[in-house]
Structure formats: C-alpha cells, structure tokens
C-alpha cells in the first residue's frame, strides 16, 4: 500500500499534473468568459509539435516555447473567429480544431523531418532542464522534509513551476482585477457587460487568447520538458482530462490545481503499476485510466455536489433590444 | 428659462430599417432638460428601437442626435454613457451571481485593480441612497433580491455613471402598484435634481400621472408630441391606435351553466423550489369567462401551466367532476387535451408554436396524435394541409399559406394560428394567457370575438392577462392574484381599475 | 419572408463550404511541395477508378452512414452526440459476443442477431449520458466525450485481458467462425453477372446502411415520433406545452443514435475484420460529425456526404501510398469541412443571404 505514495510515484504525479493544470487553467479563462473550449487537446498538440520542431532546429527550448505558444494562439484565434465573430457552435469549432491539429501536426512533421511524423529527439538546450530549488542538496538528508523537498518539489522544469505559479496568478486576475470582474461577468451575462459599455467581443477574444497562450505552454511542456520531442498523438487525451478537471473544480483556480493533481496522480499510478492490488482486490490498470472520466461523470451527474457552469457558456452573444 | 437652454435631447429625422421592416421613420423630438418625457405606443410601434438607437445599440440609417444642443455620434453604449445617457432596460442587464456593488462598478471601474473601485462605489452608493430614496444593500447578491430592488440597482448603475438623462423602458411591467409608486417617487426626486427622464410605456395611466410631455408613436412614426396637461387618455389612445378604440366588446350577458373547472387548494413550486401558487381555489362554469388579473409574476403563469400540463402542482383540480393528475404520468399536455382542455399559451413564440415549422405542422402541434392526422404508421401530411387551409380561411390568417414557416407570419397572424388550432377543438375548458400580447389592434378584436363566441357555445374560459383593460372588457367574473393567492373576486360592472389595482398590490379585498 | 430559397440552404451552402475546405487543402498540399491536381487525380483513380477502389470507398462510406445518421438524429433533438466513437466500440463488442458465443446456422441470421446486439450495446452506452442529460441536466457533450474514453478502457480490458485467445500476440479476439462471414459486394454481384473486385471489403452491410438512411428519413420527416423529436429540438418549452416529454424524447433519440453508431460494427467488425481488434472504429464515430454537418442532418445528405468521405478516406490512403502526402491530409480536410459547415456556417451563410436579399429587391 505504501507504494502508492512513494516519492517516485508522487514525483510522476506532479510531472503529469503539470500539462493538465496548464490546459485546465486555459480552459478556465475561456469558459469563465462564456466560450466553451473542447479544443484544448488540439491546441496542446499543435503547440507540442511546433515547440519541438523549433527547439530541434534552433537548439533552444525557449524559442520552441514561443513557437508553441504562437501555434496554439493561431488555433485559438480560429476558435475565436468561429465562436465569437461568426457566432458559430463552440463545441463544433472545438472538434474541428482538434482534428485540424491532429492532421496538420503530422503532415508538417512528415514534410519537415521525414521521420514518420516525429521530430528529432531533443538534446541539450532543446529541452527544459530540471531546476534545483535552493538548498535542495543541503536539505536532502533531513528525514521526511528532505525527500519531499529535494526529490518531490525540487528538480522540475521551469514550465512546471510556472504552471503552479499560474494558479494564484489566475485567482488574483479573476477576483482582484477589473479585467477579471469583466471576464466573469461576460461569462454570466454578456448583455450586462455590453450595456455597461464594455466590448463583449473584445473580452471574449482576450479570454480565448489567454487560453491559447496557456495551452501553448502546456504543449511545449509535453514535448520539450516531459519528453524529448514530438510524437504522434502525444497529448493522448490530456485536453479532455483537463476539461474533466475543470468541471471537477467547478471552474475555480485553486480547485483546478487539486483536481489536476488528483488526475495526474491517477495517471502516475497507471504508469507505475500494471495491476493494482488492494488487500487482495485486483483492479485492472484500465480502471485507473478510466477513473478521471468516471469521476467527472459522477460530478456532472450532481451526485457529489453540483457543477454549475458559467451561465452564458456556449451561447454566442447576440444583441437584443 | 426653458426657452434659453437647449433641449437635453434632440432627435432629428431618425430612420431605421430592419430588412424590409421600417422600424423608425423620420422621427424628430425634443426633450427639455429637467422634465419627464413619456413615449407611448403599442407593442411594435418602434419605441424600443428608437431608444436603442439613442443608447448606441443600433445605428440609425439616417438622422442626427443632439445632446444638450451638441451634435453627438453614438455608435456604442460607451459613447451613450459618455454623453450622460443611462438606460434601464425592460429586462435587467445584471449579473445574477454578482453583488449589487460589483454590478454597479462593472464597466465603470476606476483602475485595473478592483478594491479601490469597490470602496469608492460603496461611498457613492450610500450618498445616492440618501439623496433619492434608493436604498439597496450593496453586498446582496442580485439573485437574492426582488425585482423592485433589481430595478433600483439598474437606476443606481446609471446614476453611478453620472447619467443626466435616464431612459426607462416599460419599467412597471414587473412591479406591483406599490413598487411602481415608489419608482415614480424616485423619478420625481431625480427630476427635481435636474435630471431628464424618458419613460417608455404603453400604459396611459402612467403617462398621465407622471410625465410633463408625451410623444406618441405608431407603426414606426411619431404621430404627435403634446403637453400632458393639455391632453386626455382618450386622445392619446386614439393617437396610438389611429382610430377610436373599442374599449367595450359587444357581448351578451353570460349564462353560466354547470361547473367545468374546480380548483381547490392548488400549490405550485417553480423549478427552483420557490412556491409560486400558494393554495388557491376557483371555479369556472360553462359559458363564462373568468379573468385572472395581476401584475406579471404573481403566480398566474404557473397556474395556467399546471392546468395546461406543463408543470406539476399539488392540490385538487376537477374537470367536469373528474380529478386531473397534477404530477407525473397523466399530468402532461397530451392528457389535458384528451380531457378536453385547450390552451392558448402566454408565449406563442416559445410555447404555442414551433417557429421553424410550417404553418400546417403547427396546426397539429399538441394534437399530432389525432387519428385524423395519421395514415398507418406515418403522419398524413395531405390531410393536415387541407385542415390548415380550412382553418386559415375561417380565421382570416394572412397570408393563407400553409407551407410558410410560422416565423414568417406577423404576431397577430401567428396568434390566429394558435387560437384557430385551440378553439376549433371545441374544448370544454379553454385556457388563455395574454391572448393579445404583441398583436395588432385588428387581430385583437378578432381574437376577442372568437373567445366570446366560444363562451357563447358553452365552453368555460380561464383568461389570464396583465392588461387590465382586456380583463375588464372580456371577463364575466374577475379574480385578482397577488403573491400566489387570490385576493378577491369581483364582477366587471361592479368594480373599476382602482379597486382592482389595490387588490393587485396585495391590499386585501375585505380591507379595501 | 425567408431570406433565401431552400435549395440555397441545402445545396449551395454545403457546396461552398466544401469548395472552401478543398481550396485550403489544396494550399496545404502546395505548401508541402506536392501538386494538388495530381493528388486529386490519384485520389479519384484510387477510390473510384476500379471496383477495388469502389470496394474500399463504399466500405468506408458504410461506416460513415451509420455514424453520420447517429449524429444527425441527435442533432434533430438538439443533442450533440460526440459519443459515436464509444458507442461504435461497444457495438463492436456486441458483434463479437454474438459471433463468438452463439452458433449461427446462416450469415443472414447472424447479421440480424449481431446487428441487434450491436445496436443494443451502442444504445446502452448512449443511454447513461442520455439519462444524465434528461434527468440530471449533465451536459451531454461532455458526458459522451467521457464515455468515449471509458469505452476505450473497457474494450482495452475486455479484448486484451479477457477475450484475447491465450498466447495470441495481436490485441484482438479470436476469428469469428466462417458461418458468420458476410457476403461481400463481389459475392453479391457475381450471381447477377456484375464483376466486382474480390478484395474490396464493402459488403452486405452497405445495404443495411442504405436501408437505415431510408428508415431514418421516414422516422424524422414522416412519423409522429420524428415530429416530436424535431419539435423538441426547436423548442423545449414548446415541447412541454404540446405534451411532448423532454425526458422521453432525449432518451429515445439517444437510444436510436447510439444504436445506429453501434450498428456500424456489422460493417467494420463483422464484415471486414471478422474479429474484434482494438481501436477497430478508427475514429469513424468522429467522422460522423463531419458527415452529419455536411449532410445538413438530412438522411439523403448523410448518404451523399458519407460517400464523399468514403472517397476521401480511400483516396487519401492511395495518396499516402503513391506520394509523399501522408494520409493525415484527410484528417485536415475533415477538420476543414467541420469548421466551414459547422462552426463557420454563418461566415458562409451571411454573404449569401445578403446576396439573395439584394437579388430579391432587384426583382421586386
């Protein structure tokens, strides 16, 4: 039993939580502004490819990150044009973006690198290196705190720390700034924002583009920090798990972090163990894989607290008299 | 004095078309500062369009706007706010899960950070409350305060933005008479402080009681602007409609027969669990029209919905002596129709019709199980189209085109389709909600006559309307609902608007 | 009056969307240094130039008819069923159970039995999200997405850990017995003297799919249930007024939708692979979304769009063989079709509506 909370498993959990958290916060900005986004997956995938490709060519993970963010923002802009400007169906737009990313990333990968849709493996500066937190070496021998600090919390990439710093930052933006007030308002009642003389379109585009940036970082993390290069379908449904986490968190930043840590932990357990044996009860690993989705359905069903989405979510804004 | 200062608002030659519909035609008015100016007109006369142009929601095709004598371009709400215009919409534009304070501040924040803005708004709100009798708890959440309070928040929003000109669009539609009186006191205070107020309404009484001047709109045109003190309700009504209005319908005295509908101790909760109908008793007999008067939102809609099978309730409802199910199976619209109830719903566009369906599909709506419309396993479209043609002819629906989608008919003709469908079923009981809302005068008369004719054939009719005129002229008996209860019953020739108004405000019949 | 004639809505707008999607795809092909005209030629000859090509095109089209109808039926009730993929996976399980564990005397009986079980499994998988939507208000798009992933895990477990024969290396069940072999188009057409390639996987399921298109047309446009489904889709309050139960319509519509998606398995699992392979659906459930959008949710439109996508998939496979263009190009085209016919519908529609309004005014 103690295995499940061993440091290596928890360390994996943090690593696997990071892209979920970034994507989840991305979705949070978009959906809090009333724009549903099931295209998190596609934006991450596109960013993963472009960050890996640029990092492979330039040898710079940071340039890769910028390229990944840019690619993700292009897809976010398409979503914005479809969902906001032309008031199209936000869900269908998201589906389209996921396919677009799945197709284009491989098409371009094959054209550029001729390696069956992969990028070359990233080496040296092409990857985000682990960062040792201050005093990690010094504290290592201390019992309990030592391993937790130097093995679990220290040694992650800059992007991982960025992801966890994004949680309080998002909270602060949403609840303590003018922009946040307006963003939350536009997701609840865009007419209120419009009649108050603030542009609904502008606010929603801003939210969608922030979503693009965060998905870009998430994708870059996958290809240039968690792994060393892009491979086909490397997001593996993480965009959807992030969506699930967002619902689980009821569209709130701190809860989003806990939900992503939980789902990341489940992924880590599935990764480390083929069969889970709890006091003789054998659980197949597929059940652990499916657990985040099952939990989300349970939350959606309202059996364990009701998840109430932003009121204007999914609805294009049409001016009314 | 007034001769010297320029008008607070002047519109010159405003025109606006939506596709082929000319919503505003060459409209010019002047509103003096520090006055209350009424704009009156029927539904669809173009009042709201005109105000939306003034508030930057629409751009006029032609014409100029002058604010305090200066030509002003208003391309969006921001520009309107900057020009000192505030608007209180008919449907409030509030964020329901925000506090009053957050709603007031939204869009008018002082800086990027929220805290200083909120603190400042709290101070200013306290001042405004003292000045104008506008007391609202700044920390209450919008979804936890009543509509009257919500309206005050809308006014506060405008004042917080330093509006000198306040436009109110049908502000009393959701208010009780007492709340409306409070609102008018507030407006008086605002006028006294030099604010200019435009009051849009279709209620003559409000115009006569509160305004200094009044403009009348009809079919997109401004037909007259007069001093309120120099006009009369009759004159305004005629200007609104274009000819003498028949305020009294030709109808023979009722000859009530057996009891058709008997309601005892009916309770209804809405989807949030709030009790909307709090134990009411009523009866409707064959050959009579029972009118339910009341301010919108006092449980009348829920009463109709329960009787029509759209909502569940608790209590006893007898139709021709047989109990109707009020919950679960057998309590739906199909069961009600089978029992002999027809229903002209309050909202024809969202309930009574499927706007995308052909007229002939809509003629089957609710009666699509009728064997006359079936052929084997499938629907008999040809029979339906024949039936529709006959009904369109009888009820003078224009154009008489069964294949046209419902949305392509005018409001009056849409309502005729619904009324034709329901009345032609020869029901024992007809439920009618707001039968003439958004319907042109000609169609109103026609529909009223059809309802009376059905009564004369011996049907029982339950009429719900927020229009007192309609209630007074159609009903054989009037029951007034307030806060989910029936405050009292009156006979139309033994009561008047004033007495009914008191009942609608919750002043109990015995006390009044 | 209507802003534009009906033919413009059902033919012109999808056509323009398709042209836009094609044009952008051509640019993509140019961008990766290939010749779009040559690519189209290869696709046409590969997919339509031989009965072998047709055999594959129609095989794919059969899949897409089922999943396209599944999405289309749900659209009529304003339900977006993204779960076709998972429902088709479960349908595959149903087919495998029927074919492996029941001895069938003849393929025709097996087809009925397996088809029924496939539809039941698919419908059952749709039933839970449907119930959650109808009774608990859980957003069906999200729940059906979640159910796709849960279905993948369930199938992974059952196929790999339970149904896979001992010692087998493939992640698949055992082969189905010969008695459940479905006749291919070659076998169907040979007796009437029409030569058709032996190798093309199109089979008798195609006829079932076409029949399904017809039945769904009757259901939606001619039956009382279809009337109720469409009425509910246009207005939920209207449905309540007319005594149409939202819960009942949501459930029935989703059961039909899930059943159709599940039925796809008679084609890919029973007709082609003749065993249940992991990931047998190959995203056909998602392609159904594009097919339904392109086909304007009308069974005839779905039929035509399914053949179009069958052509794209077979042509795309041919492209990947003959040129440097990976078959993922088709995914891009599919994405663009969904984007233009679905999400950017207004972008295409608004200028055309304006055009017709202007034309109408000129005539008046």
From TrEMBL, chain A:
Its main location: membrane. The keyword Membrane applies. It is found in: Cell membrane. Keywords: Cell membrane, Membrane, Transmembrane, Transmembrane helix. The chain crosses the membrane at residues 12-30, 42-59, 91-113, 158-175, 196-223, 256-273, 279-304. InterPro entries: ABC_transp_permease (IPR001851). The keyword Protein biosynthesis does not apply. One of its GO terms (molecular function) is transmembrane transporter activity. One of its GO terms (cellular component) is plasma membrane. Signal peptide: none annotated. It is a multi-pass membrane protein. PANTHER family: GUANOSINE ABC TRANSPORTER PERMEASE PROTEIN NUPQ, SUGAR ABC TRANSPORTER INTEGRAL MEMBRANE PROTEIN-RELATED. This is ABC transporter permease. It comes from Pseudodonghicola xiamenensis.
Automatic annotation (TrEMBL), chain B:
It is a peripheral membrane protein. Keywords: ATP-binding, Cell membrane, Membrane, Nucleotide-binding, Repeat, Sugar transport, Translocase, Transport. One of its GO terms (cellular component) is plasma membrane. Gene3D superfamilies: P-loop containing nucleotide triphosphate hydrolases. It is found in: Cell membrane. Its main location: membrane. Pfam families: ABC_tran. PROSITE patterns: ABC_TRANSPORTER_1, ABC_TRANSPORTER_2. InterPro entries: AAA+_ATPase (IPR003593), ABC_carbohydrate_import_ATPase (IPR050107), ABC_transporter-like_ATP-bd (IPR003439), ABC_transporter-like_CS (IPR017871), P-loop_NTPase (IPR027417). One of its GO terms (molecular function) is ATP binding. SUPFAM superfamilies: P-loop containing nucleoside triphosphate hydrolases. The keyword ATP-binding applies. Residues 9-244, 261-508 form the ABC transporter domain. Belongs to the ABC transporter superfamily. This is Heme ABC transporter ATP-binding protein.
TrEMBL record, chain C:
This is ABC transporter permease. GO terms for molecular function: transmembrane transporter activity. The chain crosses the membrane at residues 12-33, 53-75, 87-104, 110-128, 140-160, 202-220, 240-266, 286-313, 325-344. Keywords: Cell membrane, Membrane, Transmembrane, Transmembrane helix. It is a multi-pass membrane protein. It comes from the Bacteria. InterPro entries: ABC_transp_permease. The lineage of its organism: Bacteria, Pseudomonadati, Pseudomonadota, Alphaproteobacteria, Rhodobacterales. Pfam families: BPD_transp_2 (PF02653). It is found in: Cell membrane. One of its GO terms (cellular component) is plasma membrane.
């Amino acid at each position: 039993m103690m295995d499940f909370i061993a440091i290596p498993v928890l360390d994996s959990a943090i690593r696997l939580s990071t892209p979920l958290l970034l994507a989840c916060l991305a979705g949070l900005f978009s959906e809090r502004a009333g724009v549903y986004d099931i295209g998190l997956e596609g934006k991450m995938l596109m960013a993963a490819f472009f960050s890996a490709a640029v990092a492979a060519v330039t040898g710079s993970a940071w340039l890769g990150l910028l390229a990944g963010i840019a690619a993700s923002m292009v897809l976010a802009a398409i979503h914005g044009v479809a969902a906001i400007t032309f008031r199209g169906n936000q869900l269908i737009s998201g589906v389209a973006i996921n396919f677009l990313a799945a197709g284009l990333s491989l098409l371009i990968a094959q054209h550029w690198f001729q390696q069956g849709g992969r990028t070359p493996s990233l080496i040296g500066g092409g990857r985000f290196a682990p960062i040792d937190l201050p005093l990690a070496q010094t504290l290592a021998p201390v019992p309990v705190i030592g391993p937790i600090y130097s093995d679990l919390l220290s040694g992650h990439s800059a992007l991982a720390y960025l992801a966890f710093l994004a949680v309080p930052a998002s909270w602060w933006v949403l609840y303590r700034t003018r922009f946040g007030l307006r963003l939350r308002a536009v997701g609840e009642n865009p007419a209120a924002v419009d009649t108050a003389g603030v542009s609904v379109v502008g606010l929603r585009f801003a939210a969608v583009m922030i979503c693009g940036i965060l998905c870009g970082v998430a994708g870059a993390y996958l290809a240039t920090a968690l792994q060393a290069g892009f491979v086909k379908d490397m997001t593996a449904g993480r965009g959807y798990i992030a969506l699930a986490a967002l619902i689980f968190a009821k569209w709130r930043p701190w809860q989003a972090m806990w939900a992503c840590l939980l789902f990341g932990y489940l992924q880590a357990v599935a990764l480390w163990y083929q069969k889970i044996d709890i006091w003789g009860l054998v659980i197949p690993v597929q059940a652990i894989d499916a657990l985040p989705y099952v939990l989300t359905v349970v939350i959606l069903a309202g059996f364990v607290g009701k998840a109430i989405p932003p009121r204007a979510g999914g609805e294009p804004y049409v001016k009314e008299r | 004095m007034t001769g010297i200062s320029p008008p607070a608002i002047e519109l010159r030659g405003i025109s606006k078309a939506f596709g082929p519909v000319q919503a505003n035609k060459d409209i010019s008015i002047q509103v003096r500062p520090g006055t209350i100016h009424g704009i009156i007109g029927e539904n669809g006369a173009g009042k709201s369009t005109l105000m939306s142009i003034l508030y930057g929601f629409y751009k006029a095709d032609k014409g100029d706007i002058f604010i305090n004598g200066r030509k002003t371009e208003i391309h969006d709400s921001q520009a309107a706010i900057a020009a000192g215009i505030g608007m209180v919409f008919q449907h409030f534009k509030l964020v329901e899960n925000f506090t009053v304070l957050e709603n007031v501040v939204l869009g008018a924040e002082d800086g990027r950070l929220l805290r200083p803005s909120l603190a400042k708004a709290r101070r200013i709100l306290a001042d405004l409350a003292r000045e104008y009798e506008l007391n609202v708890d700044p920390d209450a959440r919008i979804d936890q305060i009543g509509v009257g309070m919500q309206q005050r928040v809308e006014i506060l929003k405008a004042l917080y933005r330093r509006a000198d000109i306040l436009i109110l669009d049908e502000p009393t539609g959701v208010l009780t008479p007492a709340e409306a009186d409070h609102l008018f006191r507030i407006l008086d205070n605002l006028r006294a402080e030099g604010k200019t107020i435009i009051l849009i309404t279709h209620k003559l009484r409000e115009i006569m009681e509160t305004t200094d001047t009044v403009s009348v709109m009809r079919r997109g045109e401004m037909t007259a602007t007069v001093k309120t003190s120099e006009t009369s309700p009759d004159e305004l009504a005629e200007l609104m409609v274009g000819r003498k209005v028949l305020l009294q319908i030709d109808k023979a005295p009722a000859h009530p027969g057996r009891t058709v509908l008997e309601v005892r101790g009916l309770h209804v909760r809405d989807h949030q669990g709030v009790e909307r109908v709090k134990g009411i008793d009523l009866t409707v007999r064959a050959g009579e029209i029972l009118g339910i008067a009341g301010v919108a939102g006092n449980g009348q809609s829920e009463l109709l919905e329960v009787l029509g099978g759209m909502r569940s309730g608790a209590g006893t409802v007898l139709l021709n002596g047989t109990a109707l199910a009020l919950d679960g199976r057998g309590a739906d619209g199909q069961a009600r129709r089978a029992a002999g109830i027809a229903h002209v719903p309050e909202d024809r566009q969202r309930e009574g019709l499927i706007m995308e369906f052909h007229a002939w599909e809509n003629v089957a709506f609710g009666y699509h199980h009728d064997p006359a419309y079936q052929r084997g396993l499938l629907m008999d479209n040809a029979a339906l189209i024949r039936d529709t043609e006959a009904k369109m002819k009888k009820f003078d629906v224009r154009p008489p085109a069964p294949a046209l989608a419902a949305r392509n008919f005018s409001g009056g003709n849409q309502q005729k389709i619904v009324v034709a469908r329901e009345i032609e079923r020869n029901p024992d009981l007809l439920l009618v909600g707001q039968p003439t809302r958004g319907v042109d005068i000609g169609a109103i008369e026609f529909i009223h006559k059809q309802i009376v004719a059905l009564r004369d054939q011996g049907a029982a009719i339950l009429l719900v309307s927020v229009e007192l005129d309609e209630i007074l002229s159609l009903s054989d008996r009037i029951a007034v609902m307030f806060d989910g209860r029936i405050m009292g019953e009156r006979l139309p020739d033994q009561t008047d608007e004033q007495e009914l108004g008191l009942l609608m405000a919750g002043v109990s019949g015995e006390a009044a | 009056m209507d802003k534009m004639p009906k033919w413009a809505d059902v033919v012109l707008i999808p056509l323009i969307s398709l042209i836009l999607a094609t044009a952008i795809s051509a640019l993509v092909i140019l961008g990766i240094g290939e010749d779009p005209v040559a690519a189209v030629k290869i696709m046409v000859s590969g997919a339509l130039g031989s009965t072998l090509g047709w055999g594959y095109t129609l095989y794919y089209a059969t899949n897409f008819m089922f999943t396209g109808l599944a999405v289309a039926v749900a659209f009529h009730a304003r339900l977006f069923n993204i779960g076709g993929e998972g429902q088709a996976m479960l349908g595959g399980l149903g087919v495998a159970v029927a074919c492996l564990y029941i001895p069938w005397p003849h393929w025709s009986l097996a087809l009925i039995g397996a088809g029924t079980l496939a539809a039941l499994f698919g419908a059952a998988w749709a039933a839970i999200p449907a119930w959650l939507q109808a009774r608990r208000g859980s957003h069906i798009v999200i729940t059906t997405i979640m159910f796709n992933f849960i279905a993948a895990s369930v199938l992974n477990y059952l196929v790999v850990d339970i149904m896979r024969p001992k010692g087998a290396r493939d992640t698949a069940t055992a082969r189905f017995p010969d008695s459940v072999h479905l006749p291919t188009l070659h076998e169907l057409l040979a007796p009437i003297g029409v030569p058709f390639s032996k190798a093309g996987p199109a089979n008798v399921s195609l006829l079932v799919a076409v029949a399904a298109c017809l039945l769904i047309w009757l259901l939606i446009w001619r039956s009382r249930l279809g009337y109720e489904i469409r009425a509910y889709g246009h207005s939920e309050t209207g449905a309540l007024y007319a005594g149409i139960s939202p819960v009942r319509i949501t459930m029935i519509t989703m059961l039909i939708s899930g059943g159709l998606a599940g039925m796809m398995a008679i084609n890919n699992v029973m007709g082609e692979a003749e065993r249940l392979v992991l990931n047998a659906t190959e995203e056909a459930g998602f392609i159904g979304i594009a097919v339904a959008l392109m086909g304007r949710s009308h069974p005839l439109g779905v039929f035509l769009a399914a053949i179009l996508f069958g052509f794209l998939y077979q042509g795309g496979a041919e492209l990947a063989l003959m040129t440097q263009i990976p078959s993922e190009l088709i995914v891009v085209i599919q994405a663009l079709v969904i984007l233009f016919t679905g999400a950017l519908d207004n972008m295409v529609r608004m200028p055309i509506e304006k055009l017709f309004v202007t034309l109408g005014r000129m005539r008046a």
